[in-house]
Design a protein that fits this description.
2 helices, mainly alpha, elongated
Length: 78
């Protein structure tokens, strides 16, 4: 792809609102406002986003390569 060319598609089927993305919506404007209401700073909000991203990446890699858990299964307590 030529340098500087946009990778965004004008095809409506590539829309962010297509049905497959409804289970993973973008955070709304209210999410940031709510975090700030609870007193979180920009750094704390960014740190939270980073932790979530790392966990998603780790889970995806482990699911892809079939990582075997090396600790015993814990029984659920009612």
């Amino acid at each position: 792809m030529p340098r500087g060319k946009s990778v965004r598609s004008e095809d409506p089927s590539h829309s962010r609102t297509r049905p497959g993305n409804q289970c993973h919506p973008r955070a709304g404007i209210g999410s940031e406002a709510a975090a700030r209401t609870y007193g979180l700073t920009d750094a704390e909000i960014l740190e939270t986003i980073a932790h979530v991203a790392v966990n998603i990446l780790t889970n995806s890699v482990n699911n892809t390569v079939g990582t075997i858990l090396d600790f015993p299964k814990v029984e659920r307590v009612a």
